[in-house]
Amino acid sequence: MSNSLNTFHRLQENLNQIVLGQERLIERLLIVLLADGHLLVEGAPGLAKTRAIKALGEKIDGDFHRIQFTPDLLPADVTGTEIYRPQDGSFHFQAGPVFHNLVLADEINRAPAKVQSALLEAMGERQVTVGAETYPLPDLFLVMATQNPIEQEGTYPLPEAQLDRFLLHVLIDYPSVENELEIMRLVRSEALSQLNNANGKKSTISAVNREKTSIQKITAEDIFAARNEVLKTYMSPEIERYLVEIIAATRTPERYSDELARLLTWGASPRASLALDRCARARAWLRERDFVTPEDLQDLTGDVLRHRIIESYEAEADGITPDDVISKILALVPVP
Question: What domains lie within the chain, and their CATH numbers?
Answer without folding.
Answer: 3-73+101-177 (3.40.50.300), 233-332 (1.10.8.80)
